[in-house]
Structures are given as structure tokens and as C-alpha cells.
Design brief:
The protein has two domains: 157 residues, Alpha-Beta Complex (Aspartate Aminotransferase, domain 1); 234 residues, Aspartate Aminotransferase, domain 2. It has 14 helices and 15 strands. Helix 3 packs across helix 10 and helix 11 packs parallel to helix 14. The chain starts with a strand and ends with a helix.
């Protein structure tokens, strides 16, 4: 552990991994978790918050009696905290729901009512189906849906290809910040500005990005932005950001008596899940603990604390990524689906690859025997796997790391893969 002693404080310039791992009960077992892009382990504080809610304030919101008032405050606090965390201008811009898939289906159901037949939506072929399928359903209402395809040579979305697709009828471009297969970080701010200059909106799927970086929707300039909180060390829940100027214009999909101006409630049919909403504060508890353990300065704004924490996380993840990608690059019979670098300026530590003359489904079960959790398949990015000609190979092998993983775990995975390759 590198550190600098200053008075009585210890300022660490790298992540204290033993401290991190103590916050995750699941990591005390035998298994190594490298399937994190499918869902991370929850921080201990998340479970404590959920249990506290269920055992002490599990009542309906909005009543006049004391326990209901407390329950209402708890759910509201979670929404307010996460609005601050992602730099939303107002709490009303944050919509919570059971999954990214459901949130985007709800958004498309509402948004299509503001479009006209002949209007156009552009999707990619490298997104998770959650950010493709709901927009394709708009075709039933006469909306034209086009596909922006990743360059198969460099696995990148390129603006000159998008420009060919956009017209004065384009209303929305839906794309991913980071593909859950490719791992490359797309230039969201640049793409968003490009789309805005041509009069359309953007909807960005950040599911594969959110566990690895702090989020600032104001800096990105996005119209809609969505990610899954169960992939950010929390409960099985998700968050959709929408600019208020857009949300105000959307027809509600809740009960008929829920007013058009009741944001975000009009877009949360059935309301939020109370205990999971409150459990989201456990994620921020965890971040707070990381900040207090690693930094001596006193910051009042939670988003600023998280920004500093993620600088440590990014550095640690790059070290893990370097070790693994060097291994992949050293074998000529391995094809990496994505960038061949570990640089955090380019990618997150989600690696997809295939091994010559081996189906992906043949490899992963052998790794299972070593109590290492990785995965094979299309990961709901079926269109990308199909376009890359990898369906017959049973998709890709995917190894996805987060900051609670260790160099020793990477070595263990390399040792398990070596005789198979």
C-alpha cells in the first residue's frame, strides 16, 4: 500500500483493496467473480438499508401517520441523493424502476405519442437489446427505425456513418456509452452535440459504463440516460435520467388521475419499489466510507467525494486490465472483440474474446470447475454477435472486472485459461 503521512491522516493514492473487499460479504467465499457486467455483488450497506426499511418502515407512502411520513422521507431521500450523484438539475429528472429494459420500454411507450408517422429513430447494432427493442416497437406506429452499425474493423461507432443516416425527420438517436461486449467508451458528449446540432435527441444506455466512472449528465448534455444499479454494487433496480424539459411534455403512463405535471410519478406506473429505493442509499454509504478511508479532506458534496473515489477505482481497474489484456494479446489464437489496450481513456475492464477452433460454450464450463465465474453467450447484444458472425461460435467468452477484484484473482483466471488455450 502506497501512502503519504500528513499529521494524523493517511492519504492513500491507491485503492485499499482489503478494506474494499470487507464491504462485500459475498467476497469472503471461495468464488472469484468476473461476471460483473451481468451484475456486481452488493455492498454490505445496501443489505443493511433494505433490512432496516423492511423491518421498521414497511408501510405505504403518503399517509399522515408518523411511520408513513418517515417511509416517505426515506424513499424521497434516495431519489434526491441519486439526482445529486449524477448531477441532475432536479430530483424530478430521476425515474426509478425495476430494470433498464423496463424503464426504456416505458419511455418509448410515452415518447412515441409525441412522434408522427414518418419520423425517424436511429439505434445501433452494438447495444444491449434493452436500448434497441423498445424503439423498434415504434414501427407499429409508423416510425422509421434505422441502424447505426459498429465498424467491424475497429469495433467503433463512427460519426460519418451516423451522418449518412440522419435526416430532418430524425427525432432520436439511441446508443450505448459502453457496449457490454466491446468495452470501448464511446464519446457521448461529442455524439450528443453532433445529434443536437441536427435537431434530434439522444438516449444513452450507460449500464456497462456506470460501475467504472463517476457520472455527470450535465457535462454529457444527454436528453435521456439510463443504467442498472444492481451493476453498481446495489439492489436489482435501475435509474433513468431525463431532462425536465422533455419529461414535462411526455404523456403519462400511470393512472389517468396522475397529472401530466407530476414528474417522475407519471412515468413510474405502480410507483417505485420502496425498500429497493431506500437500499440505494447503501451504495452512497459505501462510497462515503471509501472516501473517508482514503482521503483526509472534508468535502460536503457527495458527487465530489465520489469523483475522487472513482479516480482511485480507475487506477486500480487499469492495473487489473493491463495484466489480463497482456495475457490475451500474447496468444495469437485469441481474437479480442474490442480494443487491445487496457487504457482507461479507451475502455472499461470488460473483455470479450474467442479462441480459435473452440466454441465459447466449451471453454467457460472448464473455468467453472476452478470456482471462477465468467460467462459465454451474446449477453443480450444478439444483433452485434450476429453481425460479427459469432452466433455459430456460441457468442463470446466474457470476463468483466470491477474494483473489488484483485491481481491475484486475475492470475488465478490466467492460470485456469492457459491449458485450455
Amino acid at each position: 500500500m502506497e501512502f503519504i503521512t500528513l499529521k494524523k491522516h493517511i492519504i492513500m493514492n491507491q485503492l485499499d483493496i482489503p478494506f474494499v473487499r470487507k464491504q462485500f460479504p459475498a467476497l469472503s467465499g471461495e468464488w472469484v467473480y468476473f461476471d460483473n457486467a451481468g451484475g456486481t455483488q452488493p455492498a454490505r450497506q445496501v443489505g443493511e438499508r433494505i433490512q432496516d426499511y423492511l423491518f421498521n418502515t414497511n408501510v405505504q407512502l403518503g399517509a399522515s401517520y408518523e411511520i408513513s411520513q418517515l417511509s416517505t422521507q426515506r424513499v424521497a431521500e434516495a431519489q434526491e441523493t441519486w439526482a445529486k450523484l449524477i448531477h441532475a438539475k432536479e430530483t424530478a429528472e430521476v425515474i426509478l424502476g425495476p430494470s433498464t429494459t423496463m424503464l426504456l420500454q416505458n419511455l418509448s411507450r410515452s415518447l412515441v405519442q409525441t412522434f408522427n408517422p414518418g419520423d425517424e429513430v436511429i439505434v445501433t447494432n452494438c447495444d444491449h437489446e434493452a436500448n434497441i427493442g423498445p424503439w423498434l416497437m415504434m414501427q407499429k406506429q409508423g416510425i422509421v427505425v434505422k441502424s447505426w452499425k459498429v465498424n467491424p474493423e475497429n469495433y467503433r461507432l463512427e460519426l460519418h456513418d451516423l451522418e449518412k443516416l440522419m435526416t430532418d425527420r430524425t427525432r432520436l438517436v439511441a446508443f450505448t456509452q459502453t457496449s457490454n461486449i466491446i468495452g470501448t467508451i464511446n464519446p457521448v458528449r461529442e455524439i450528443t452535440q453532433f445529434v443536437h446540432d441536427r435537431g434530434a435527441m439522444v438516449c444513452v444506455d450507460a449500464v456497462a459504463y456506470a460501475p467504472h466512472r463517476a457520472i455527470n449528465v450535465q457535462e454529457l448534455g444527454v436528453d435521456f440516460y439510463v443504467f442498472s444499479l444492481y451493476k453498481v454494487y446495489g439492489p436489482h433496480y435501475s435509474l433513468l435520467f431525463g431532462k425536465k424539459v422533455h419529461l414535462e411534455k411526455l404523456p403519462g403512463i400511470n393512472h389517468f388521475f396522475i397529472g401530466r405535471d407530476e414528474i417522475p410519478y407519471k412515468l413510474q406506473p405502480g410507483n417505485v419499489n420502496y425498500e429497493l429505493s431506500y437500499g440505494l442509499l447503501g451504495i452512497t454509504d459505501y462510497y462515503e466510507n471509501l472516501f473517508e478511508h482514503h482521503f483526509e479532506n472534508k468535502l460536503a458534496v457527495i458527487a465530489d467525494k465520489i469523483s475522487q473515489v472513482y479516480q482511485l477505482i480507475e487506477k486500480h481497474e487499469e492495473a487489473l486490465a493491463t495484466k489480463f489484456i497482456d495475457f490475451l494479446n500474447s496468444h495469437s489464437n485469441i481474437r479480442i472483440i474490442g480494443e487491445r489496450t487496457a487504457s482507461t481513456a479507451v475502455r472499461v475492464p470488460t473483455f470479450s474474446f474467442i479462441i480459435d477452433h473452440k466454441k465459447s460454450s466449451e471453454v467457460v464450463p472448464l473455468i467453472d470447475l476452478q470456482k471462477i465465474g465468467i460467462r459465454w453467450g451474446d449477453f443480450y447484444a444478439r444483433r452485434l454477435i450476429d453481425d460479427l458472425g459469432l452466433l455459430s461460435n456460441h457468442g463470446v467468452i466474457r470476463v468483466s472486472m470491477v474494483h473489488y477484484n484483485t491481481p491475484e484473482e486475475v492470475s488465478r483466471l490466467i492460470k485456469a485459461l492457459t491449458p485450455i488455450i
